[in-house]
Amino acid sequence: MIPYRWLPAFAFALPCAAMAQSSVTLYGIIDAALTYQTHANAAGDSFIGLQQGNEGFLSGSRFGLKGTEDLGGGAKAGFTLENGFLINNGKLDQQGQLFGRQAFVKIGNQYGDLALGRQYTTANTILYYVDPLGIGAAPSNSWMVYLTGQRYDNAVSYTGTFGPVMGIAEYAFGGVAGSFQARSSTSLGLKYSADPITLVGDAQYTHDSASRTARIYIAGVKASVGSAKLFANYIYSHRDAGFDSSNGGTDTASITSMSTAATPTNTAAINSVFASSRRDDFFTLGASYLATPAVTLTASMMYDRTRADAFNGTRATAYGVADYAFSKPTDAYLALAYDWVHGDWSGLFGNSTTAYTGGSGKPLNGHDNQTTVMVGLRHSF
Predict the structure, then answer these.
(1) Is 97 helix (H, G, I), strand (E, B) or coil?
(2) 38: which residues sit within 8 A by CB, 6+ positions away?
(3) Which domain holds residue 370?
(4) SS3 category, 129
(5) For 184-191, which contacts have Cβ atoms below 8 Å and span 24 or more sequence positions?
(6) Cys-Cys link to 282, which of 220, 304, 331, 374 (CB 3.0-4.6 A)?
């Protein structure tokens, strides 16, 4: 028999004993690289320092918290809060947002997860599976995200996995009074994975603050062949005349991160707003090879052609990485990248034009190529 004086404490403990297990995990990645880069300004001077565009070559530096709770009966709840930061100066990344990489709560069961908050676009998630670096970090290897966007605020997503098939459906609310469409996005991504092949596809429709539309379609494949992996993907992007993912330059976060942001070596940015409709065709071919249990070699070629009224230009990148793993969480790498532009994108690198509009006839005043060498150290926890 329980003594009467113990009853309040015993009664309070009962719900706790019945509660399911929960946990919170701290995780992160720090990627820093000594960098040499040519054509860092309009005069053609070189740059020596840390990072390229404030990023390491392989990963954006971050730390985050993930929480999970078993609700019983196969149901579970959880959250992710992920911060991005700049290792070279300690500042916040992603427009200065505290949890700019991810911030969402979710609930789910064996039939899938429902998540609400700031999340990756389906295009970014789907490309991860068919890109040689899982979408890198430095501008030289990740500039495809100016087409796809990386994250949306105000997003609701469903993710379900059924055998070899994973599907993601996402809707991001625009939050504009009087217009359900403005700044909103609707997308669907699919992945089929059965060794040795992974196939992906994605369709994404994004609206700016004036309800102009960017349409993105993606197809890609990854194939494992012994110690090698082969990658290929294609992105089709079509933007309405005047489409502006920055909401007129006042907010690059709420709609999407569909830009290679202006940097000291790329002031105009290839994301320039076009007065006419714009089409981009982007291709990636790449491979990685596990040379030894500790050494991975990766090489890739990226190419994009931009067409609009009175505009026809291309940008391309070739890069290679030799990565040595000291352990599972710690590795060092040597990365080489060569970027070049042609046609109406000529003069993109190191220019000082801050208000360039594609197709306007106003020439860029930089250089047509840029070479980058990075020696990096990365640690995850």
Answers:
(1) coil
(2) 44, 46, 369, 370, 371, 372
(3) 22-380
(4) coil
(5) 185/121, 185/149, 185/152, 185/155, 185/255, 185/256, 187/121, 187/122, 187/123, 188/122, 189/122, 189/123, 189/125, 189/126, 189/218, 190/126, 190/165, 190/166, 191/126, 191/129, 191/165, 191/166, 191/167
(6) 304
For residue 263, what pLDDT is reported?
Answer: 64
Confidence of residue 94 (pLDDT cuts 50, 70, 90): confident
> What are the structure tokens assigned to 57, written together?
């070559």
Neighbours of 16 (CB within 10 A): 7
- Judge residue 379's burial from the number of C-beta atoms within 10 Å of its C-beta, 0-12 exposed, 13-18 middle, 19 or more buried: middle
Q: pLDDT (tens digit, 9 = 90+) per residue, 68-77?
A: 999 999 999 9
Q: Which residues contact 163 (CB under 8 A, 6 or more apart)?
A: none
Assigned domain for 3 exists: no
CATH at residue 272: 2.40.160.10
The token duo for 139 is 């501008």
221-226: list long-range contacts, CB under 8 Å, 24+ apart. 221/130, 221/197, 222/129, 222/130, 222/197, 222/198, 223/196, 223/197, 223/198, 224/195, 224/196, 224/197, 225/196
Q: Which two tokens stand for residue 86?
A: 């700049």
Name beta bridge partners: 27: 64
- With respect to residue 355, please indicate whether it lies within any of the assigned structural domains: yes
Q: Rounded distance, CA 365 to CA 91, Å? A: 30
Is 80 in contact with 103 (CB distance < 8 Å)?
A: yes
Tokens coding 208: 């700016």
